[in-house]
Specification:
With about 400 residues, the chain is of the alpha/beta class. The chain is built from 13 helices and 12 strands. The protein binds magnesium ion (MG).
Length: about 400
């Protein structure tokens, strides 16, 4: 079997959902993968296409390693190259699953569970929003009548958190995540932001009222986006211990895992990190130092499904759980779900599309998420297909559509 054609398409949603389609020399056989957004991503993808044409798509790992070696030879093992490799690797999985008539989880060793639990990423006041690949706010056509709700006054008041938490639980989700750093972000520095007691008290109050709003049975995680120094993160961690959070995410800058490890040693709150790390060896130092309780590789940029599975297994060796980061379309979320179904230490998978009005409609058939879960089916490949009629309506201007 040979790869005959590779094309891309980009949907301008809250982020750029970047799709890669790999076709083979078998009657209409193709696979579709998704990459995490990045500036210049489709240009990188198109540079990679000649390296793949004529190759056997069943040699998934060989092809991914070949792309990585070539990119490394050119001195560019930076993250963006890995976004591209991850999307191609995913498309190969979808294609090979379809070729053998089996779901992708079978290619990963078979499923350990029939449903994958989803946690909903939430912003307190709503997150109708859209961002360029450099995280500059933008207003695509679909957003103009709605208006961005991202930085409205009152968004970061405790009542906004409790109201939003109740709304999302009413949709059937049993695990939620809120941003904790947003409360102080508007006036602060980007990293190593020193916190005063009043600010820490506000964060603790947000955690308290959110817990009170949803009761003890709902899992609640809080994200700090790498903002704080360990001494302040420890104060936050200790103060929110009574509220039994699911995890505290990225409390400290990522440049030295000993900062995060210090937080973990000093308080009883589970910690999570890893959404920007690429390849399993990047996770090794933080796993070896037991700096966290959970890792969050992003399947759309960590190197692909096999790499995510390797990260999961390495973490499992240290008793550390898997809770993948995911801001993808339903197709990318489903690719991640196949890894989650096949990983022993899986805890929960992120969903970041609540306020994208067309998110469910981007794939054909029933909505993917039911009662905060994804059900793994016997359908071949990822088991979902883009609804191109709908998806194309939101195509990013200037990008080709699978041509
Ligand atoms: Mg995060």
């Amino acid at each position: 079997m040979k790869i005959t054609r590779i094309t891309t398409a980009v949907v301008e949603a809250n982020y750029d959902y970047t799709f890669i389609r790999v076709e083979a020399d078998r009657d209409g056989l193709y696979g579709t993968g998704e990459s995490f957004f990045a500036p210049g991503l489709t240009a990188i993808l198109h540079e990679m296409i000649p390296l793949l044409l004529g190759k056997d798509p069943r040699e998934i790992d060989r092809l991914a390693r070949h792309l990585a070696r070539k990119a490394s030879g050119a001195g560019s093992t930076a993250g963006i190259v890995w976004n591209a490799i991850s999307g191609i690797e995913a498309a190969l999985h979808d294609l090979v699953g379809k070729h053998y008539g089996c779901p992708v989880y079978q290619l990963l060793g078979g499923k350990l569970r029939d449903e994958v639990r989803i946690y909903a990423d939430c912003h307190a006041g709503g997150n109708v929003e859209s961002w360029t690949p450099m995280l500059v706010p933008r207003e695509p056509k679909w957003l103009q009548p709605l208006g961005s709700s991202f930085e409205q006054p009152g968004n970061y008041e405790p009542e906004a958190y409790s109201r939003r938490a109740r709304e999302v639980v009413a949709k059937g989700f049993t695990a939620l995540k809120f941003d904790l750093d947003s409360i102080v972000l508007l006036t602060g520095e980007e990293m190593h932001r020193p916190l005063n007691n009043v600010e820490i008290d506000r964060m603790v109050e947000v955690v308290r009222v959110t817990r009170e709003a949803v009761g003890p049975a709902i899992d609640l995680a809080f994200d700090c986006h790498w903002r704080f120094r360990p001494s302040d993160a420890i104060k936050i961690g200790r103060a929110i211990e009574p509220f039994n959070v699911f995890w505290l995410e990225d409390p400290c800058p990522p440049d030295n895992w000993r900062q995060t490890a210090a937080v973990k040693r000093a308080c009883g709150v589970p910690l999570l990190t890893g959404e920007n790390l690429v390849q399993c060896h990047a996770f090794q130092p933080l796993l070896e130092s037991q700096a966290v309780d959970l890792v969050a590789p992003d399947v759309q940029k960590c190197g692909g499904l096999l790499e995510a599975r390797r990260i999961a297994d390495l973490a499992n060796l240290y008793g550390i759980g898997l809770a993948p980061h995911c801001i993808a379309s339903p197709l990318g979320l489903m690719a991640s779900a196949h890894v989650c179904a096949a990983s022993a230490n899986f805890t929960a998978l992120e969903f970041h599309g609540q306020d994208v009005p067309f998110w469910d409609d981007l794939i054909a058939g029933d909505p993917l998420l039911q009662e905060g879960r994804v059900t793994m089916t016997d359908r071949p490949g990822f088991g979902v297909e883009l609804n191109e009629e709908v998806a194309r309506e939101y195509a990013k201007p200037g990008e080709g559509w699978f041509r």
